[in-house]
Amino acid sequence: MAKAPVLTPRADDFPRWYQDLVGKAELADNGPVRGTMVVRPYGYGLWERMQQELDARIKAAGAQNAYFPLFIPQYLTKEAEHVEGFAPELAVVTHGGGKELEEPVVVRPTSETIVNDYFSKWVQSYRDLPLLINQWANVVRWELRPRVFLRTTEFLWQEGHTAHATFEDAREYAARIHREVYADFLENVLAMDAVPGRKTVRERFAGAINTLTLEGMMGDGKALQLTTSHELGQNFAKAFETRYLSKDGREEYVWQTSWGSTTRMVGALVMMHGDDHGLRVPPRLAPVQVVVLAVKGDDAVLDTVRGIGDRLKAAGLRVHVDDRTDTPFGRRAVDWELKGVPVRVEVGPRDVENGTAVLVRRVPGSKEPTPIGALPEILPSVLEDDQALLLAQSRQRRHDRTVEVTTVEEAAEAARTGWARIAWDTLGVEGEARLAEQGVTVRCLVAEDGSVPESDDQPGNIAVVARAY
Amino acid sequence: MAKAPVLTPRADDFPRWYQDLVGKAELADNGPVRGTMVVRPYGYGLWERMQQELDARIKAAGAQNAYFPLFIPQYLTKEAEHVEGFAPELAVVTHGGGKELEEPVVVRPTSETIVNDYFSKWVQSYRDLPLLINQWANVVRWELRPRVFLRTTEFLWQEGHTAHATFEDAREYAARIHREVYADFLENVLAMDAVPGRKTVRERFAGAINTLTLEGMMGDGKALQLTTSHELGQNFAKAFETRYLSKDGREEYVWQTSWGSTTRMVGALVMMHGDDHGLRVPPRLAPVQVVVLAVKGDDAVLDTVRGIGDRLKAAGLRVHVDDRTDTPFGRRAVDWELKGVPVRVEVGPRDVENGTAVLVRRVPGSKEPTPIGALPEILPSVLEDDQALLLAQSRQRRHDRTVEVTTVEEAAEAARTGWARIAWDTLGVEGEARLAEQGVTVRCLVAEDGSVPESDDQPGNIAVVARAY
Questions:
Q1: Considering the domain A290-382 in this protein, what is its CATH number?
Q2: How far apart are CA B362 and CA B118, in angstroms?
Q3: Which of B67, B78, B159 to mutate to test the interface with A (most CBs of A within 10 A)?
Q4: Model ipTM?
């Protein structure tokens, strides 16, 4: 009798596979209020590691963390385009402390407005610039078609907000965050292939003059927007009177950026790297890089796994020792596979006699006996190899499933199974609108050489089009 | 002409001194919605360091981080005493996504109810216990008399929630968190004298069967509750049907704990260690332990301060180099003093010639020339000495301002300027009620030997009474 698969196979039903995996790997549950989620310890451990890696990069780029309030008074909702963009998604508090409020307050969907209310007080002189702030927070955008991690009414994120003396300085900082924080993190920690590009006017953040994005291809060929960095121009500065006294004594409006990344990246991790057996976590991200499993509960085995655990921790790896032998070994092995821990070291009574352990690598799916004494030396390079392999596989997928097309019809057809690249001159805003009617969007514009275009109408721009989450 | 003080002197007006300090040291601003706050980068840096130190201790105690939703449906508000306790402080969302909600949702004031909704699903067998969860989050309690950090409508905190198989295990875990996480952190990182004790029934958390507290004496002799750890008994387990199958096959309700610490500790830091010149940050907490200041902007000075900065960083210290010589030196020195950075190393042109720097220690207030080459070696022990001095000063204050009394009248009188200790047998719940009419509360019960009593009526219990924030 063939074993029933633990997860719905991806080829049968990708969305159901995703839901199965998120539930069975204990990443998250749906919350009681529709569209909210409960992030379980293993899922939150992934997010904590993302936070650590991003936070270090954000600080290296000179920004400091702060915290702005959850509640925004309605009188602060200025900057017309921004307010209009977010109005349909707002949650509103009308009662507090047992009374109806004189003025209802909005639960932040993002913090540009409240941040500018304070920037306009804190910024006086050119000496106060650049002002580089980041916050880690929850935000709420009422979601009509929720999907756990990908689109949730409440999500966790970091949002950066900066003010600069000149257009050029703001532009360079948005690009720096895009490159040194986000692109570097996605490639070198999450092992994700991601295309850096520029959003079209239609897809831009409400209130921005330019949005930079990193777009990833998921396992089903759809696109997911991974991170965004916005140039806000002087739109918020003018709405909030955020001005500074320049070196030559003139009052000038500041130039601003904002940029964010969210718990959606946990969903991206699943859809980018998961397979029919579960998640595959990139070793550099993994909260647990190596799990050492006792096959049975006899003393020699338990002593051995604990000893291996200690030596691997001493070698600087993130290690978990699974000695819960009151649960059958097979069930625990399947569970660690589902959770995508990069390496399993399995030790049974016969292994102890032989001085070996079975080394199971989640990414290539290999399984071979290995001398216990050699583990501390070989595992670091095994993990680096598997990190590289995940990145290579995600690159390969995009290359295999992206086609060059020359008409709107071909682009729509290609987007059924992957991505299409089409000259922006050919597509244009009208072609973009026609694709949108079929649920296909321009994910971003890229230059011929793969760089990020300086403008929408830069000659040679290519539109990357796809269906998207 | 005498210099005007930067802050209102504490002796003149303690609450105004506190507000002055919080604003001028750039810790926080009031938010636009009454009772909310904007935590500025320097204030947030203090909170981040608190988070790091607490998080490491929480993980060492075996708990894992997770995240539960901000919004709680009203049907989940079970456990009568708990619901009644929090009802007057709730914020309610009635509109979402442009529509009135069919059922309004509550913004979490704490998460016992929503956590139990999931614990009741996750816990099946004794093998699932203990279940040890913590979350870092924002919560909202509508505040009628807000004061920044101390009582705010929204605040940041960690809240732990655990489920255990037995009463004893839950009791021991609440005590372990109280001792190994909170007491250890307050004493060894925040350099705060804090009295560990047990809350009376009147002062207990709504829904708990026992609350452990750590109470600190502020600079004005009032008390502040710093952290709490609750035994919840089976109150929530029964309201939410959180049960497990025991080893011998019986369905049993779990025993629970919850425990929390908040951004209020930033306020405590100010009121515990601040003086008329500003904050004094304990070196082990300080985001910046040493600031190296260039007195003037000539090349030799700038080279020297940068070199000192590099060598002190290499010695493992948290260092900031202040080379913003376009701002007058005096103003910067006052600013670092206000911010309470433990050590300033000041370097002017003459110092460079002499190979010395002026070493200014914030805690003892000393100032002396020191050979530059000796700094990396002496500063670590200077910082440890000043850490110890802060703790000793806070202990001394409590000893000096606590009196032993034998009547309710004497207790009320003593609470005008400090704390009183009175036998709980003498005071009793009636005496407690009489004190409460005068704004004086029992902060906690302690045993004669200073340990935490096992029960309210343990013979020899002493009530510590005070006015409190």
A1: 3.40.50.800
A2: 48
A3: B67
A4: 0.96
